[in-house]
Amino acid sequence: MNPSDNLKQIVEAALLASGKAMTLDRLQNLFDEMERPEKKALREVLQELAADYQDRGIEVREVASGWRIQVSKACAPWVSRLWEEKPPRYSRALMETLALIAYRQPITRGEIEDIRGVSVSSNIVRTLLEREWVRVVGHRDVPGRPSLYGTTREFLDYFGLKSLDELPTLAEIRDLDVINEELNLTEPDGATPDDRETDDQPQVEGDEAAQDSAIETETPASPDEEETADQAQEANEKEA
Questions:
Q1: Residue 153: per-residue pLDDT
Q2: Predicted confidence band at 192 (pLDDT cuts at 50, 70, 90)?
Q3: I need a surface site. Which of 29, 140, 150, 183 has the fewest CB within 10 A?
Q4: What is the fold of 92-195?
């Protein structure tokens, strides 16, 4: 097989076999030095493949880490059923935190809390760091030197973006509940609006939850009420 005559087929096969995004440099390294194609030729071939795959179940797309073959968004709900393990489900609080980092980066945890009006759970920050969707990009030059967070290349790859410029504008963003549903990033089962008031609020189940709720919502008696109760008790004792 002559590489120059079959460049398109070779690139297509490499993308399919790789299973992850490939840069132009990595594609070039597939060839010997004497037969190595120019990056311009590779890009032209990749664009041709992207056109060939239009209106199909899979597509050739450029993301932050390079080019890859991926399932089209239209077919994703059905293809995802091939895996028994359910996709991870994320809370509204996590998605709001991630959105603020994406649009306002670099940003500190304190600034996120000021915007959202509630504290940011350490579990949320840890999850975003473990998923490698965000990273510490520096420290704010203020007392305490809080960490500055920004998104990563893995974040762009996960959401199929080539750069941050492809993020929808704030005017285009709809309700987070709708976005989560479309991305299969819905809130955990049973979550209610009250569960999201404070990210660090512990979750308690069963009778213990009801007891804790009663304790927390019990209103202490005012001094006037206590005095009236004491007078009533004293009258009852005299009658007795």
A1: 93
A2: very low
A3: 29
A4: Arc Repressor Mutant, subunit A (1.10.10)
